[in-house]
Specification:
The chain is of the alpha+beta class and about 150 residues long. About 25% of the residues lie in helices and about 35% in strands. It is built from 2 helices and 8 strands; from the N terminus they run H-H-E-E-E-E-E-E-E-E. The protein folds into 2 domains: about 50 residues; about 90 residues, Sandwich (Immunoglobulin-like).
Length: about 150
């Protein structure tokens, strides 16, 4: 059976008043909330003015599409099936920057890209591109099971 000291200590902990945040943090939280409300109100006002003046709307952002696939080593000794390899896959829109997808040790990769046409190149080992790039179209729904091959001579 617990002694009276333990019982009193447990009851004191149970009845301890709830923690109140410091006054300064309450004021800061209120200011952040008010700033967010002001920002939203300003955005609504700007849209209303643009509609009244007939200004063109900004382009809607394009949703990213999921792309998954495998970087494979193809060729080599006779009768050897393609196998996934660790490396990098480069995706590049015409005139755009290169987007890299690092593969795991089995060659699998996953990333999100804006829908469009890309030149896809496998890179294995560290910085040697595999032969010619392949042209791929990424639809808005995404692209699954893309196989990027690195041929061994």
């Amino acid at each position: 059976m617990p002694d009276i000291g333990e019982l009193l200590a447990a009851e004191a902990v149970r009845r301890r008043p709830a923690h109140q945040p410091a006054f300064a943090s309450l004021v800061a939280r209120r200011r952040r909330r008010d700033a967010g409300v002001r920002t939203a109100a300003l955005a609504v006002l700007l849209v209303a003015v643009a509609v009244v003046l007939g200004l063109p709307r900004a382009a809607e952002p394009v949703a990213a599409a999921p792309v998954t696939g495998t970087l494979r080593m193809v060729g080599g000794p006779c009768c050897r099936p393609p196998q996934g390899i660790a490396g990098t896959v480069w995706f590049q829109e015409p005139g755009g920057p290169v987007v890299e997808a690092v593969t795991d040790r089995d060659g699998r990769f996953a990333l999100t890209l804006a829908p469009g046409r890309y030149e896809v190149t496998g890179v294995w080992p560290a910085d040697r591109p595999c032969w010619d790039p392949v042209s791929v179209v990424v639809p808005p729904a995404g692209l699954r099971g893309l196989e990027v091959d690195c041929h061994i001579r």
